[in-house]
Amino acid sequence: MTMRIMLGFLWLLHWLPLSFIARLGEAVGSFLYAYKKKRRHITLTNLRLCFPEWSEEKREAVAKQHFQAYARSVLERGILWWASEARLRRLIRIEPGVPLEQIAASPTILLCPHFVGLDVAGVAVMLESPLCSIYTRQLNDAFDKVLRRGRSRFRPVKLFSREEGVKPILRAMREGLPYFMLPDMDFGARDAAFVPFFNTTAATLTAPARIAAATGAKVIPVIATYLPNYAGWVVRFYPAWEDYPGDDLIEATRRMNRFIEERARETPAEYFWTHKRFKTRPPGEDSVY
Length: 289
Prior knowledge:
By secondary structure, this protein is an alpha/beta fold. A hairpin with a 6-residue loop joins strand 8 (about 220-225) and strand 9. The two termini are about 35 Å apart. It is globular. It has helices at about 1-15, 20-35, 35-50, 55-75, 75-80, 85-90, 100-105, 120-125, 140-150, 165-175, 205-215, 250-265, and strands at about 90-95, 110, 130-135, 155-160, 180, 190-195, 200-205, 220-225, 235.
């Protein structure tokens, strides 16, 4: 019942101006920063590891901004799930545009790192093209239903569970669907390599490189960030990586992390610092958390 009330609240919110929803989200984020001590500790630990050159005051300021941005993104999902296509097109600026010709020409991985606006990036693609992606079933059935419907309401979307493995994704890519891939979570040491990320090492999925090698897919990064003054979002499609993955899958994974690091430095408050990105450590290393 609590989740249904929350979903009803998000549905009501989506009728309001984005500027109101965004400010409300920032207020909620400030509250959560003050009271969610565990997540605040994770966020500050990540920032200390990744930005040792910053003062503690700056890390605390960015951590609070991150909580505000993340809470804002949650409340704004009502717009993504229920707003009209016309409103979404007004709020989402796409630069330079969804690469439809490249998607049609050959298998494509749309690489979307975990910035708070990643759902916006998915909607930007979905407004123009069907896609496939990995999906984690939600524990609450009502939320799961709304989430699935919201992510597939404009174009056909094939969502596969992580437990199904990579084979369904490969089949969908052979059918011409771009693979919308979230590459930068810590899922343990399996199918991962310990490669540099900022000033430490992170267990990083080698799947982007392996799938690109197996399918001949091009990798096109896509990242959504906030426009200033609550004007909406900008979704940037970067040029396809040349000579990727090459002969060395570990080096290709390092290359991916370097790209994500560069983007996170551009908008540090919007990268997903509340996740235990460095949870899995190399043998012999203690937990950083």
